[in-house]
Amino acid sequence: MVADEDGVVDLELDRAHSARMYDYFLGGTTNFPADREAAVRAMEAFPSILATARINRRFVHRSTRLLAGGGMTQFLDIGTGIPTQPNLHEVAQSLRPEAHVVYTDNDPIVLTHARALLESHPAGRTAYVQADVTSPGELLAAPGLLDTVDLDEPVALSLNALLHFVPDELGAHEIVEHLKNALAPGSTLTITHATPDFDPDGIRRLTDAYRAAGTPGQARTRDEITRFFDGWLLLEPGVVPTHLWRPDPGDDTRNLTSTEASCYAGIARKP
């Protein structure tokens, strides 16, 4: 986010942003010509990306229901993206009205929509923090975060469709370890991550399209993604294609292919 000397924020609408491209893939309206142009190029490179985004969104909903239903009442969602109903806090608070949820993102556009992320159930609380995952220390020290969740108690950390935008040269595994180390025993880590395992050529073209739009990325293999969970206990069925992670009986995405998903998902708990 860039602000001039008068404090006016430059929303950088002339540059494509991954969060707004994802909004476009999901059929949202909070995207702009640069985002749509980059999104179309991404679709040309990897035509399954609309299905990939839909599969990922369904996983976010059911994983949140699982964790809230299992007793989690604190959630930290990093790389939130443009609000899309139902938002994570709406899913969590439908089961745990008292849940506290913190959202973070580095897209200034998300800040302008924070009101939608702050419509908490009266029994719970939500907050939005403008932060970048590549500075995890600053993110975790943000007053809005610390005022909303207690890091001495279990927190459900979500890094959904985020880490493939953090290449190794930015220290992706080190960043995740920093976040994991800050969380209390009983906390959980949820990840979805793009992979070249099912369509290497398509994912290479997709990564190139994002890079051409100014967003670096790195798809990772199953083994590389599983490393993010090191030291924590993976929930069944482990790290599997996103649409196969405990699909709901009526979810039509369960009938799609692993190539269309081209992402892995996993959830682990800190011992």
Q: Can you give a write-up of this model?
A:
The protein contains twelve helices and ten strands. The model is unreliable at 1-8 (pLDDT under 50). Strands 3, 4, 5, 6, 7, 8, 9 and 10 form an eight-stranded mixed β-sheet that branches. Strands 1-2 form a two-stranded antiparallel ribbon. With 271 residues, the protein is an alpha/beta fold. A hairpin with a 5-residue loop joins β1 and β2. α1 packs across α2, α2 (33-45) runs antiparallel to α10 (200-212) and α3 runs parallel beside α4 (88-95).
In total, the number of strands is: 10
Number of helices: 12
Alpha-carbon distance between the two ends:
36 Å
- Unreliable spans are 1-8
% residues in beta strands: 15-25%
Report the principal-axis shape.
globular
Arithmetic mean pLDDT: 92
What Rg do the Cα atoms give? Answer: 17 Å
What helical percentage do the residues reach? 25-40%
Structural class: alpha/beta
Biggest sheet features:
8 strands, mixed
Order of helices and strands: EEHHHEHEHHEHHEHEHHEEHE
